[in-house]
Write a structure and sequence with these properties.
Elements (H helix, E strand, L loop, with lengths): L1 H11 L2 H20 L7 H8 L3 H29 L1 H19 L5 H18 L2 H10 L4 H14 L3 H12 L1 H20 L23 H13 L10 H4 L3 H30 L4 H26 L4 H20 L7 H13 L1 H13 L4 H8 L1 H21 L3 H19 L7
Helix pairs in contact: 2-7, 2-8, 2-10, 4-5, 4-6, 4-18, 4-19, 5-6, 5-7, 5-10, 7-8, 8-14, 8-17, 9-10, 9-14, 13-14, 13-19, 13-20, 14-16, 14-17, 15-16, 15-17, 15-20
Length: 424
């Protein structure tokens, strides 16, 4: 009787939330290793092969180049064949990339493996999960995206785990272990995903079509015309890219992405260069992702209630302050104010950016438009880590580049405030 009751309760949970839960777990384990945790491999690889910071950083630029080239194609495929196949393929390839990383024996091989690894992350740990959330939710869309994104927020726990694995078994064995873990966790969870709710008898947010009366439809129509969450005009990708709004969103992502791209790659080498221990720097990864949960959930909740442009501007301002603090770090306690501002600031974009895209351009070609919008992150992802590595190799100091990236972030604030809702 007890288990029957549990089973009945589980059936009452809207399936969209099971998709959110699956995405959360994938982001925690697989995303935590592929993105935030990868900085733990930076120093061990550099020490073994005596490669410079710029040489290793170029691998992350290759990931951004690949994302820029394949991002629109991946988005197109998601819109055509659905999220489930893309996610499973991507995570399988990401795990394979981690396994092959252990066989690195030259810089060229390292770059080739990293490209394969990056194709997997672009397909399996990027826009597909957000596309599913956008399709399964409407009134709670930003909140659903915020909740699933906290998987990345909690993924900071992977950083200390990787530091321990590398310390105990070496970076090659750690890569093999995490590649297998990605397969065991990510691929089964990929089977949970469904592209849209309509084929299963639901509308977004769990509404059942036959239970919505004409009076209810009329009331909802009045409400949606009065709120900022009203359904957007449906744009095709071709129509979207000729609008000023599209390119201003791309520019905002570009300007704020410089600091994000560089800090996620160089966080550990920078902190160790100013005298902070590798163990504390590893916990710094947990601090960034942990503090980002506040931004993901806080801005996600606010995003369904207030103008997303103003919220994005506030987040960018917080990120700017955080980067300025980061530039002046000289002792472990200074990580605290950095985390207070940078974590929630950069994380504000994670639920707000795809949600504002859905608001402004609709869901018809949501993934394709998102892939094209990734051009902004592509440019900063190519340039930012390499520039940071080059500055350190040249002057032995990261601080000038952090100050430059703080200024670039600040320029993005008025850009997002100038964006206007489109009328087709």
């Amino acid at each position: 009787m007890y288990f029957t009751s549990i089973k009945g309760s589980l059936k009452k949970v809207f399936y969209g939330w099971w998709i959110v839960a699956a995405a959360w777990a994938q982001f925690l384990v697989c995303g935590g290793t592929a993105f935030y945790g990868f900085t733990t491999f930076f120093n061990p690889i550099a020490d073994e092969f005596h490669w410079s910071a710029a040489q290793i950083s170029f691998a992350f630029s290759l990931r951004s180049i690949e994302g820029g080239v394949l991002g629109p194609l991946i988005g197109f495929l998601i819109d055509k064949i659905g999220v489930r196949k893309i996610i499973i393929f991507g995570i399988a390839l990401t795990g394979l990339g981690m396994l092959l990383l252990s066989y690195t024996n030259s810089l060229l091989v390292f770059y080739g493996i990293f490209l394969l690894f990056s194709i997997g992350t672009t397909a399996g740990l990027s826009s597909a999960q957000y596309v599913a959330a956008a399709n399964w939710f409407s009134k709670k869309r930003t909140w659903a995206m915020a909740v699933l994104s906290t998987g990345f927020g909690f993924s900071g726990v992977i950083g200390p785990v990787l530091v321990w694995l590398i310390g105990q078994y070496g970076w090659r064995s750690a890569a093999i272990i995490m590649g297998v873990v990605m397969w065991l966790v990510g691929i089964p969870l990929g089977l949970v995903f469904r592209h849209r709710p309509e084929p299963y008898g639901y509308l977004p947010d769990g509404e059942i079509p036959e239970t919505i009366t004409p009076d209810r439809k009329a009331r909802d129509a009045v409400v949606t015309t009065k709120t900022s969450s009203a359904l957007a005009t449906e744009f095709t990708a071709r129509q979207a890219i000729v609008t000023r709004t599209f390119w201003m969103l791309v520019l905002f992502g570009l300007l704020t992405g410089f600091a994000q791209s560089a800090i996620f790659v160089h966080e550990m080498p920078y902190l160790t260069s100013v005298g902070i221990s590798r163990q504390i720097a590893g916990w710094g990864i947990l601090g960034i992702t942990g503090s980002s949960i506040i931004g993901r959930l806080g801005f996600g909740w606010l995003g369904d209630r207030y103008d997303k442009r103003y919220l994005l501007a506030i987040g960018a301002a917080m990120q700017c302050i955080g980067v300025l603090i980061f530039a002046g770090i000289s002792s472990p306690w200074m990580l605290i104010p950095f985390l207070v501002f940078f974590g929630p600031g950069y994380a504000s974009q994670i639920p707000l950016y795809p949600a504002i895209r859905a608001d402004y351009f609709g869901l018809k070609q949501f993934a394709t438009i998102g892939g094209l919008m990734s051009l902004g992150w592509t440019v900063c992802g190519i340039l930012a880590p390499v520039l940071a590595g080059w500055v350190f190799d040249t002057w032995g100091n990261y601080r000038p580049i952090w100050l430059a990236y703080a200024i670039i972030t600040a320029i993005g604030i008025p850009i997002v405030l100038w964006i206007k809702r489109l009328a087709k």
